[in-house]
Sequence to fold (233 residues):
Amino acid sequence: MNILAIGAHPDDVEFLCAGTLALYAAQGHKIFIAIATNGNVGSPTLGKKEISTIRKKESLESCKLINATLIWMNFDDEWLFDNKETRLVFIDAIREAQPDLMFIHNKLDYHPDHRNAGQIAEDCKIPVSVRLVKSNFDYLNKIPHMFYMDSIGGIGFEPEYYVDISSVIDLKERMLRCHKSQEDWLIALFDEKPSDLMFKQSSFRGLNAGYKFAEGFRQVLTYPLISSYKLLP
Fold:
């Protein structure tokens, strides 16, 4: 299968579903990670161009760990909105990956870029397969199945299914820690290292499911429903 995860910012996918992606990669599936914004306000000291360049490089390093293909949409961080231009870029990302299934942000996450990225991706589910919706890539002959990813911190999200990521938690941490530029920045903002918060959330979700570490998901139940949780590893 082709698997596509769409994150609003560099490091979102690593935090929320990298364990699941690593399991898919180990099974031989093709992984794509699409990042909507370039992270160009994510630094306490660097300018926008410099930090966005660094964050793209960090994303590429993370992708290499599971042989994933990076799709860089390059919207400005904090200013992701739903309009025709944005939808066409999302449609291109999905058509490029030709996914059988996708992971997207849920509608209750804390950050507007997360919520908007998830809603835009969900709203592109049908247009990607419509012949007369023209973009830089050919339309798909299938409609991908979608899963909502957990919220950061697990707040406001009740998973319906858990993936046991205990065997790949170290790889998930390595992927997240590729985003070195964010450690000091997020400590300054939230007084916590992203990897520490990730371990807390993965452990808590594991406790919910009876595993040591887990990631939680819900199906996107908009018509047409293509498949089921059997698609998850």
The chain has a mean pLDDT of 95.
